């Protein structure tokens, strides 16, 4: 029924963040017109967590080797890697200043089903 998911990052410096996704993270992309880049993401999965707070959405990029990502050229670390039990969690900074959460899962993943 569904063919994919489209994630939107709102940014105070969209050009710099697009260049970071293209050049530093090397995400393949298409130009939707006028330089408006849309990036191919790795396979995805979605989880639903209970909350008593205001409902929200979160984005985490999953990786096989979080230390390799954190030590890559051009990466600014906001939150260093920490073991959460279910995985190793960290946060990097986009050029706009926006933090982007990343994690190396230790749980079974659904994105290859």
Describe the 3D structure.
- This is VOC domain-containing protein.
- This protein is an alpha+beta fold and 113 residues long.
- The chain has one domain: 2,3-Dihydroxybiphenyl 1,2-Dioxygenase, domain 1 (Roll).
- It is 14% helix and 27% strand.
- The strands form 2 sheets. The protein has a 4-stranded mixed sheet.
- A hairpin with a 3-residue loop joins strand 4 and strand 5.
- The radius of gyration is 15 Å and the shape is globular.
- It starts with 13 loop residues before the first helix and ends in an 8-residue tail after the last strand.
- 6% of the residues are buried.
Query: Based on the structure given, which CATH architecture is correct?
Result: Roll
Tell me the β content.
Answer: 25-35%
Radius of gyration, in angstroms, nearest whole number: 15 Å
Biggest sheet character: 4 strands, mixed
Fourth CATH level, the homologous superfamily: 2,3-Dihydroxybiphenyl 1,2-Dioxygenase, domain 1
The total strand number stands at 6
How does the helix and strand content classify structurally?
Answer: alpha+beta
> What would the principal axes of the Cα set say about the shape?
globular
Unreliable segments of 5+ consecutive residues: none
Portion of residues within helices: 10-25%
Structural domains: how many: 1
Give the topology string: H per helix, E per strand.
HEEEHEEE
Strand order across the biggest sheet?
3-6-5-4
N-end to C-end Cα span: 15 Å
Identify the CATH class.
Alpha Beta
CATH topology: 2,3-Dihydroxybiphenyl 1,2-Dioxygenase, domain 1
Protein name: VOC domain-containing protein
